[in-house]
Amino acid sequence: MRQLSTQFGGILKERRKEKKLTLTQIADLTGLSAAYLSLLERNMNSPTIENLNKVCAVLDLTLSDLIERASARREIVSHPGQRAFLFNEPGYTYEAAFEGSRSINCIIMTVRDQENHTSTAHVADEIGYVVQGAMIVTVNGVEYAMAAGDFIYVEANQNHSYRKTSAEDCISVWSYAVSPGHDTVEQYKKCLNDPNTG
Fold first, then answer.
1. Cα separation, 86 vs 190, whole angstroms
2. Which of its termini does the chain have fewer beta carbons within 10 Å around, N or C?
3. Please, are residues 153 and 166 in contact by the beta-carbon 8 Å criterion?
4. d(Cα 29, Cα 140) in Å, to the nearest integer?
């Protein structure tokens, strides 16, 4: 239900706009707050079935309709604040750009601390791109200084680690191909060492 529920907000928002209703109007008709409904549309809360039914009723949808639409939908745009966290700690976060089965997966890594973090060798090649800040990536004992705009290619089965060197947060994007039946986002998470142990 986790992957389906992350589709509900966008579907409800689109339906509300089709019906030319505001969040305040939906709030009045359902007894739910506009703030709650705003979070619901952005997939930032965990609605109860009872509350989903209230919203669906106002939008002339059944819960079955909502689930069916979510099952058929594959998001192609990933928005900040709507992504699933693989790790979410004070010093770092790993976010999955997309959930579900894809031929290419993508992780957004934000590092706030300056600890050395170790990642075990992955079963697939991956490409890293630094969006903001700077860090040193060590691959098989060799250090590579990376700043915003730099790419790095890490081959499969290579041990690697990284540490932030900039004063600002270091944000990087890591993409890797998925072998059929192999490296899903969940499996990627399992092959990462918890950076706290780095």
1. 9
2. N
3. no
4. 60
36 contacts 45 by C-beta, under 8 angstroms: yes
The owner of tokens 């409800």 is: 12
Q: Which pLDDT tens digits describe the chain residue by residue (198 residues)?
A: 344 455 788 889 989 999 999 999 999 999 999 999 999 998 888 888 889 889 999 999 888 788 777 766 667 788 888 787 878 888 999 998 876 667 788 899 999 999 999 886 777 899 999 999 999 999 999 999 999 999 999 998 888 999 999 999 999 999 988 655 444 455 555 555 444 433
Q: Is 133 left (phi over 0), alpha (psi -120 to 50) or beta?
A: left
Q: Which residues pair with 137 in a beta bridge?
A: 144, 162
